[in-house]
Structure formats: C-alpha cells, structure tokens
C-alpha cells in the first residue's frame, strides 16, 4: 500500500466484505492481494466476524491471492472466480524471449487494473495469467501482441499449467533458525544488512509480514523478501560440535 489512507480503505473494504458474507450467507471477494495487503488482513483478523474465509491465487503456491469470505461450508469458494489464460506465440521460433515483465506490461497497456491480475507464470516463451474471471473475455478479445510477438490466448478449462518452479538448493551453517540468520544465508548477505529489510516491512513468512529479526523459522515455511526473492526453509539437518546448525533451503530461481 502507498499510504495510510489506502491501508484504511483496504481495511474497511475487508471488514465490509466479511460482514456481508456473515449477514447474508453469501460469498464475497476482494481483488488479488499482494503480500503486504494479505498481511494487513491477517493483522485485523481479531476485528472480523467469525465467518469462513480462504485465500487462493488459482494454484498452490501462488503469491498474489484473492480473499473470499463465505458463510456456507459446502461452498466451493473459487470455482468460478479465477480464470487462467494461456498465452502462446503464434510462431515460437521467431518469438521474442518473453519474460514476466513483458506479459504484465502488455496487460497493463490494455488499461487493466493490476489488482485484477494475479500471478503470471512463464515457461518457454508461454505465459499463464491468473485473473478475475470477469475480465477474462476482455483479455481474450484484446490481447494480440506481447512485446513484438503476435500471440493467441485461450482459457485453460479445468486444468492447471504444468509449471514447476526451479530451485537452487542451499546448505550452510547458522547459529540458529532465526529469520535474520537464515535470510543472510539464502542471499549470501551479512546479518546486519538483513535487519533493515526486516524492520522496513519487506519480509514475509507464509504471506504474513514479520518485523522481528528473532522470529524462529519452522520447516516448510516460505520466506519472501521484496526485491530479493523467496525460498522454502527445509529445516535443520544436524548440529556441529561448536553448536552451529546445518540447515537446508530451496531458493526460487
């Protein structure tokens, strides 16, 4: 969020949606939330009615997610709300080397609000865009070029893109599983340089803002550092005679 005013607007919107779902027994939805916006939701849970909710971005492991409130446990909250659009070059051989920024830029050039778009996955010049279903038709009808490459779009029906993230395995020793120590290992930085990132609100663990450098990581938690990347903490392997712990991480590349 860019200001306190925008944060207050988001908080009010979330509270209104939760109350509507609770009072009317209906599904209510936010737009796609980034990590900071999702963390704001977690910080205000105590003020929200006791109503069911779910966060989902269209596939497991998504970073940008829609928040849905629902009163009925039998409801499939996201059955129709999120669509995945596959974007293919008309001729891969002569296509530009397309990346995330290229796909996002082309969508923004159509005048689409960023909050209507979730994650964008890229594989071998193909793009997979998760978006709110309400704008999927507009994208299909209007997106015909990414960068200098002519493309075609199609909706993925009842399937998810077969894209597995690539990881770099990192192993090393730390004094403890404290957040600052493990981040320093992941990004080959000093612990002192990491402290400003944590206190500056740039570090999230499983989507929740963490501002304490002494937070102790648990196995399988995902750490996202804005501007640097993210990794999965795999836990302690063993301990040295000097009391240091050997840990393993899977860093997204």
Task: List key phrases describing it.
14 strands; 253 residues; 6 helices; alpha+beta; five-stranded antiparallel sheet
The count of strands amounts to 14
Count of DSSP-assigned helices: 6
* Strand order within the widest beta sheet: 9-14-13-12-10-11
SSE string, helices as H and strands as E: HEHEEEHEEHEEEHHEEEEE
Question: Span from first to last CA?
Answer: 26 Å
Average pLDDT rating:
91
- Major sheet description: 6 strands, antiparallel
Shape: globular
Structural class: alpha+beta
Q: Rg from C-alpha positions?
A: 20 Å
Content of β-strand: 25-35%
Contiguous low-pLDDT stretches (5 residues minimum) are none
Indicate the percent of residues in helices. Answer: 10-25%
Brief digest:
The chain has helices spanning 4-24, 35-43, 100-108, 136-142, 179-186, 191-199; strands at 28-33, 52-56, 65-70, 82-89, 117-123, 126-132, 145-146, 149-155, 167-174, 203-205, 208-209, 222-225, 229-239, 245-252. It has 253 residues and is an alpha+beta fold.
